[in-house]
Write a structure and sequence with these properties.
With 896 residues, the protein is of the alpha+beta class. The protein has 23 helices and 27 strands. Helix 12 crosses helix 19 and helix 13 crosses helix 17.
């Protein structure tokens, strides 16, 4: 046992040495093992298949042999039955039953001459109607065939019947004799054959000795009658399968194979032997191919390794590997040669660079030494363990010492530093020991002459092999820098003082500007009130005079008075708007609007002027998103500024108002409003100046067309407030396109559309008469002329209107009797309209009574104050009659 294990160990060690020798050996071994394992795996995987296939083939062959054997004996039995039936149907046999004399003459010779098929020695017996034997071809007494069960069965059933004799030696076949005219059986013909002769082994079937057995199957069961001669064959194994049946009436004979089944193992062994042979051949072939291929690979690799070894032995060698083919090895060799060439070039470059760097380092050293000698930087070194301090010449000059002084140590060095900073600097030095970073600090030194100088130190700790660190650093003089910083600090302090003074002055100026702005706003508001009040009287009286009827000459003069008053009102409104915009106090009054309705109102207002000049007026408004929110009044104002200018400067042709949607999002839309005309046009370089306040294209325009030059400037400011821009495109003598954009928010489903500016219905006065002619109104107005105008306008619907001169009188009137609507002036003596409205709202039963403000103050702040006090409407003076009637109708309907 020990010798065997030692032999195995030696063989294993020898195999490892052989494999480690070269790649060729490894590839050979790997190829052989791979081929053997592959074929072996295939053999093991296919062994069950081979086994079961062999079993299936043997079973099929055995079933085929048994079927052939069955067919053979079935054919013999049926041939005998057919031969017996031919005898039973023979007319001589039939006549013999009817005529006894014919038996001797015909029947006996027929029986003697009968030859059974297959050369068998058969006994033939004829039995009459009473089942008594009457003739036979066998010698002996006929009584042996009397009363047989097969005779009665064949006679009764009328068909061929098969039985085995009681001694199991004879096979009996009986066939009935049938007499056609009588339609009845008249007898039976019985045939007996020896079983051993009948069931002899078939010849030429390829089964050798033809081992089989014959059995009879009856109601009592199955019993074996005989076996083939191989019964005594060695082994004695028998097939356990059931034999096939031979089908005839009566007993059933069963014939089946009786030899032992063949073994499957020889077939499987032959297959495995074949696989083993293939595996061995494939392993040898794979080993040979692998050895050859790897040898082809290993040869150039070995040459490449030899070249690399030569280069390793001699770094200056420029040896190249032999050229190889176009495969990967060849590419590797070429890459290796390219690398060698590149390394050679790099080596040459490196040598030249080393020389250059050496020269540069030498020159740098010389420059450092020159700089140090010039007094720029002082270099020092300190070894704390030994206490050694090394200074260069510059260090001595930085500390005001002579270079020939000896005995510089750390303690003396620290003595040169100002006493107030000595402990801190020494702590800085000692903290720098052992730290792997650059350490910096500043300190002051005192020269022997008593002058103070500021130095800056930069140092780094360097560890020695023996573990003792040393500190190397530099010092340079920063006295001048400190002086500059101190001077800069003084300058900064002076600047801060000046900034504080200027800030105080600016604050005072700002307060003065705000005070002036407030005074300006108050002045504008007051001037607006003072101008609008007489304008209201002028325009109102002119309207009343014209409505009562005047001669044509006076009517023309009144029209000119109204035109001048409206023009003056437009100028005042424009100046107020511009001042509010410049003061950044202009507030948009945003609400739900209908863009198409705003454009329609603008067209309605400029249409009379266009018709008077015979101009064509077109409108292009595409479908726009619903429920937009914006300032409808300012949109209308911007469109009117463009539209009135277009009509004013157009002598022939037409004016087109167009709206386009430029952008659309979930939050808002950007609309572009355009007014195009075919007027005189403007030079392109003068277009931009039109949008400046009080500017026009030239001075002659003012003389020819009139105007203040504020409309376009206000339009641009309004567009910018609405998130857009404004501009124009014009050609001299062709026409102009003035445009502005506005970004309008999207409203919600709860946003309700309010009445648009300029949409007062002319029929409001008639509706007031029919619906609210019974109502009682109170007019609160302190100005007699304005009161007279308002009473005249209201008297067309309500002949009796109460009037109060101030807020106190208004409170007394409301306390005495209820009113359906109050028209309230704002600026009045004793009690203004705002306070009077608050007190009226505090009275019981007047919560739904409409109160409408009448004021010459047209600012948005005034409107907001009125809303906060509880007023329901706002009418700015001068009062337009149509607007007055529309506002009253809307307020009375909402106050029901």
């Amino acid at each position: 046992m020990g010798d065997a294990s030692g032999t195995a160990a030696r063989m294993s060690r020898a195999l490892r040495l052989w494999l480690d020798r070269s790649l060729v050996n490894r590839a050979t071994f790997a190829g052989a093992v791979f081929a053997l394992l592959t074929i072996g795996f295939l053999a093991l995987a296919s062994a069950p298949v081979i086994y079961f296939q062999a079993r299936a083939n043997l079973a099929a062959s055995r079933a085929n042999d048994q079927s052939r054997l069955h067919d053979y004996f079935d054919y013999r039995v049926r041939a005998l039955a057919a031969s017996l039936a031919s005898v039973a149907r023979n007319s001589f046999v039939v006549n013999a039953f009817l005529d006894s004399s014919g038996r001797e003459l015909y029947l006996l010779p027929l029986l003697r001459d009968y030859q059974a098929p297959f050369g068998l020695n058969a006994r033939l017996v004829v039995v009459d109607l009473n089942l008594n034997p009457i003739a036979s071809n066998a010698p002996g007494d006929l009584g042996a065939w009397r009363g047989l069960a097969i005779e009665r069965e064949a006679f009764d059933s009328g068909r061929e019947t098969l039985r085995v004799s009681a001694d199991a030696r004879w096979l009996q076949i009986a066939a009935p004799v049938y007499f056609p005219p009588a339609s009845a059986n008249v007898g039976v013909v019985l045939l007996e054959l020896p079983l051993d002769a009948l069931f002899s082994a078939p010849k030429g079937d390829g089964r050798g000795d033809g081992c089989f057995r014959v059995a009879v199957a009856s109601a009592e069961g199955e019993r074996t009658l005989l076996r083939s001669p191989c019964d005594a064959a060695p082994g004695g194994a028998r097939e356990a399968t059931s034999p096939l049946k031979l089908a005839l009436a009566g007993d059933q004979l069963a014939v089946g194979l009786d030899d032992p089944p063949p073994s499957v193992l020889p077939l499987v062994a032959r297959s495995l032997l074949l696989y083993g042979t293939l595996a061995l051949a494939a392993g040898m072939l794979a080993a040979a191919v692998a050895r050859k291929q790897v040898h082809r690979l290993a040869q150039p690799l070995a040459e490449l390794a030899d070249t690399a070894r030569r280069i390793a032995d001699d770094p200056m060698s420029r040896a190249l590997a032999p050229e190889a083919g176009p495969d990967e090895i060849g590419r590797l060799a070429r890459a290796f040669n390219s690398m060698v060439a590149r390394l050679g070039a790099l080596q040459d470059t490196l040598e030249s660079r080393v020389q250059e760097q050496t020269r540069a380092l030498r020159e740098g050293k010389e420059r450092i030494e020159a700089a140090a000698s010039a007094g720029i930087v002082g270099v020092w070194e300190w070894e704390p363990a030994s206490g050694r301090v090394v200074w260069d010449q510059v260090m001595f000059r930085l500390y005001g010492r002579s270079g020939d002084e000896a005995g510089i140590d750390f303690a003396r060095w620290m003595g040169f530093i100002d006493a107030s900073e000595r402990l801190r600097v020494e702590a800085e030095f000692r903290a720098a020991i052992g730290e792997a970073r650059e350490h910096r600090c500043e300190f002051r030194v005192v020269w022997p002459d008593g002058s103070a100088h500021h130095l800056q130190m930069a140092s780094r700790s360097i560890g020695e092999p023996d573990g003792a660190p040393r500190l190397i650093g530099v010092n340079h003089d920063v006295t001048e820098q400190k002086n500059i910083e101190r001077a800069l600090g003084e300058v900064n302090e002076a600047l801060e003082r000046r900034v504080a003074e200027r800030t105080s002055a600016l604050s005072i100026a700002k307060e003065a500007a705000e005070s002036a702005n407030r005074a300006k706003s108050a002045f504008l508001a007051n001037m607006s009130h003072e101008i609008r009040t007489p304008l209201n009287a002028i325009i109102g009286m002119s309207h009343l005079i014209r409505r009562n009827g005047v001669p044509p000459g006076q009517d023309r003069r009144l029209s000119r008075i109204e035109t001048a008053g409206k023009h003056l009102l437009e100028i005042i409104s424009s100046i107020l708007d511009l001042s509010k915009i410049e003061a950044d106090k202009f507030v948009l009054d945003e609400a739900a609007l209908d863009v198409a309705q705003v454009v329609g109102n603008a067209v309605a207002l400029i249409s009379p002027q266009a018709q008077a000049k015979g101009l064509r007026l077109e409108v292009r408004v595409p479908p726009l998103p619903a429920r937009l929110v914006g300032d409808a009044t300012r949109l209308l104002q911007a469109l009117l500024n463009y539209g009135t200018n277009a009509v004013k400067f157009t002598a022939a042709g037409g004016v087109t108002l167009q709206v386009r949607c430029l952008e659309e999002s979930a939050a808002d839309v950007l609309l572009r409003f355009e007014v195009q005309d075919t007027g005189v046009g403007i030079e392109p370089e003068k277009v931009e100046s039109l949008f400046t306040a009080f500017e026009q294209a030239d001075n002659s325009i003012t003389r020819v067309y009139g105007g203040t030059g504020l409309g376009l400037a206000i339009t641009r400011r309004l567009a910018e407030l609405m998130g857009g821009r404004a501009g124009a495109d014009s050609r001299l003598g062709v026409g102009s396109i003035f445009w502005f954009t506005a970004r309008l928010r999207r409203g919600t489903s709860e946003t309700n559309l309010v009445a648009q500016p300029g949409s007062a219905a002319p029929a409001a006065e008639q509706m007031l008469r029919s619906e609210f002619g019974h109502c009682r109104l109170l007019l609160v107005e302190d100005e007699p002329v304005n009161g007279e105008v308002m009473l005249a306008l209201l008297g067309e619907v309500w002949p009796q209107v109460d009037i109060a001169g101030n807020g106190v009188q208004a409170l007394e009137c409301v306390a005495r009797q209820p009113y359906d609507l109050i028209l309230m002036d704002l600026q009045m003596p004793e009690m203004d309209g705002i306070e009077a409205t608050r007190r009226i709202r505090a009275l019981p039963g007047v919560a739904r009574m409409p109160i409408i403000a009448l004021t010459a103050n047209a600012f948005v702040e005034d409107r907001l104050l009125c809303q906060q006090a509880g007023m329901d409407g706002f009418l700015a003076k001068p009062i337009e009659p149509d607007r007055l009637m529309a506002t009253l109708l809307d307020s009375l309907r909402r106050g029901r």
